[in-house]
User: Fold this.
Amino acid sequence: MGVLDRFRLDGRVALVTGGSKGLGEAMALGLAEAGAKVVITSRHADECEETAQRIIDATGGDILALEGDVTDKGEVEANVAETLDRFGQLDILVNNAGTNVRTGTIDLPLEDWQRIVDVNLTGPFICAQACLPHMVEQRYGRIINLSSIFGAVGFPSRSPYTATKGGLLNMTRAWALEFANDGITVNAICPGPFDTPMNRPLRDDPVAYQTFVSKIPMGRWGDLEELSSVAVFLASEASSYVTGSALFVDGGWTAQ
Ligand code: NAD
Assistant:
């Protein structure tokens, strides 16, 4: 197999949570371009359908849109069952769905803390728990967890975000060890700032935007393609000996 063939995903089936927009949509598109059949899930069926259609139009790929909240174990299990029903296998899980709140620690309502823990930490656990039995049985799997630079370094007024992304990063390592002999790799992507709906409040605030840019050695935010190519690498044979790793896609932010 030539080296570029090792990046191909023909015959593989991927599930991308929160795949209706932002980084999730970009990664779903990248995986489909590499040949995978892709299931995208999000809480809003209409958004999901529209995104699936955009990816079909761009790639001619086999894309399935499913409504589902990653914090709801029943919905996640139903979506995994439907994926297996439709495609007969599930090889790649991208734990992408996530959320953020930018409030100081003293003023943060406990409900906000709990919501972010539920979505960013419990959600990936529920999704992995639903996919892993099938991956173990087929002795093949790729799990990609979307952590963040803030899983490794701190930032003010990001208590639950930093806590959950740090937790997800270390859970990545625990899963990598637990399933190392099952043909399953588990890795994290730690993005710096990308222009997605989650980051609109930062992008639209010149002071906040400049604060972020000033911390990035490359002096700019990331482009979506710069993230999706990393997801294709971690989803493919090209990364077959990479597990328990974190790939920082951050223009050098965490190298300082
Ligand atoms: P986004 O807000 O633009 O999109 C998030 C997606 O997750 C949406 O499709 C949303 O519908 C979905 N989602 C949210 N809660 C959900 C739930 N409970 N169940 C199912 N789907 C849900 O976010 P983004 O910027 O594209 O970020 C994607 C991931 O990457 C997140 O985990 C985020 O923390 C991480 N990340 C993003 C950046 C960045 O710069 N954008 C940087 C570091 C890490």
Notes: The first helix runs from residue 22 to 33. The pocket of nicotinamide-adenine-dinucleotide is lined by residues 17-18, 20-24, 42-43, 69-71, 96-99, 119, 123, 146, 148, 191, 193-194, 196-199 (CB under 6 Å).
